[in-house]
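Hi L.,

As promised, Peptidase S1 domain-containing protein:
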Amino acid sequence: MKDPYDSLVPIFRGERIPPRVQQHGTGVYFKLNSDVYLLTAAHVIDGSEPGQLLVPGPDGLVPIAGSMYASFIADEDRKGDNADFALFKLGAQCKKALNHHFSALPQTRTELLNTSLELGCCSISGYPVSKGTNKSGQLSSEIYSFRGVAAKATTYEKLGLDPSANIIVHYDRSRAVYPGTLQPFPGPALRGVSGGAIFSWPKEHALSDDWSIPSLVGIFHTYHKDEGLAVGSLLMPYIATIGLMQMKGGQA
């Protein structure tokens, strides 16, 4: 896989009252051994009922179907959940539907880190809600990436986060620039990007636009607007949960 964008999936949510479908979050379509998964943030799936979360299929939106696991809910709004991770082990029909538009990211395009303190330049990629459209019932989404520099230890201490579990990336929307020209570029808000990918760029390719280079190192879940800080979780809890699901035949 040369373009990891092919693994990023917009997640929609269907509501009964009022009846509507809205773009809701992002997921990373991921393959480990012979199984496929959708990695996302736990708050993306909170409060949803079976069949309520939807992804693009060949003929429209289809329900996400499969075994699900989410991190422990510390409180109703997850303010106490620094992990905020969730995943689906996808069933055969959901896999078939996703394969029409997307390609599962192989494990070879990931990097399992013991600490995020050694990271340099990172990109956060997903589908901002503000860029989604609904024209006569035809839904569309637009993918965006937000690039910034990984934080140092003092920033983790300030937010009370653990660099062995979390990733913090400096990204201030008000100071964003277009990488090609370095001209001011007020990008979209990160709402809807939750559950999207955090890619790490090697130091020598920090400003590259060659997407065959970066590795998936985490999943984004929270943006602290006032501080200009984007927070996610490292991949280890996802991989550990997948291992547990495989041992138990699908259930964590």
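The radius of gyration is 17 Å.

Thanks again for sending the construct details.

K.
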